[in-house]
Amino acid sequence: MRESGTKGPARRLRAAAAAASALLALVAGCSDGGAREGAGPAPARSTAKPSAKPTPTWDRSPSSLVAVGDSITRGFDACEVLADCPQASWATGTHASVRSLAVRLFGAAGAASRSWNLAVTGSRMADLPRQTARAVEHRPELITVMTGANDACRSSVAQMTPVADFRRSFERALKEVRTELPRTQVYVASVPDLKRLWSLGRGNPLGKQVWGLGICPSMLGDADAADAAAVARREAVRERVVAYNGVLAEVCGRDARCRYDGGAVFDYAFTGAQLSQWDFFHPGVNGQNQLAALAHQRITAPD
């Protein structure tokens, strides 16, 4: 009987211990570290690296440039009367007071070795494809274009370049660049407001004498005339310039590597101090400096 009494409490102790072990196991299973009913497996950590930012289409720091265009880019009348002065060019000049686009982009030494001025005084848009054909031979990273004033500056309104012809020539020039140099960038400056320049310079007697030598007759001819015909003539020239700028904006806008200046040159209100002291129509050194600043601002602007 005594032996039987001893086994009874032992069995009960073993049963209690087993129950306690089961309870501990249940508590451990319900803790944060255990699996919950209905919960799926822990999500796997992503090992994918974040995607790199896409490279911008427009390079804000090109390493070489070619300038094409007309007398403005040649610095005509900036240094002496009726003569080119390429050292004062807004695009590639070395004149310290101009701080040309090339100098701003590459420094003085870089501008001398990595920029070329192929502009031609008197050229019109029809000449641009030949200029760009020469430009691509240098394989520049940037080509600057400023042309179109001579298309409006003709002997008469009737002689101005038709807008359709202007468009075809510009499209050909841009196609020449894109075919030969797919990644080369193009900066296109708007045609200046010739009527504003007439209004600013007509008060200068010396300037009007030089105008009489044949500078932009469609706008500057009979500079003091105020009759209806003269007013209509000047307005027709201005309207044609606006149409030319519309073409530049549209055609350039179709090319991801072309930047139009947004009308910055056309809208800029030149002062007398910024015009040539000889013809009071072309930009002088100060005016060339401003053209360089406008171009640099647009070329280095973020996308």
Automatic annotation (TrEMBL):
Using the UniProt annotation, give all residue ranges assigned to the region (Disordered).
33-63
- Which InterPro entries does the entry link to? GDSL, PLB1, SGNH_hydro_sf
Where is the secretion signal located? 1-30
| A single GO molecular function term of this UniProt record | hydrolase activity
Q: Keywords on this record?
A: Hydrolase, Signal
Which residue windows are transmembrane per the record?
none
Show the Pfam families listed in the entry: Lipase_GDSL (PF00657)
Q: Does the keyword Signal apply?
A: yes
Keyword hit for Signal: yes
Give the matching Gene3D superfamilies. SGNH hydrolase
Q: Which PANTHER family match?
A: GH22081P-RELATED, PHOSPHOLIPASE B, PLB1
What is the name listed in the Swiss-Prot or TrEMBL entry for this protein?
SGNH/GDSL hydrolase family protein
Source organism of this protein record: Streptomyces cremeus
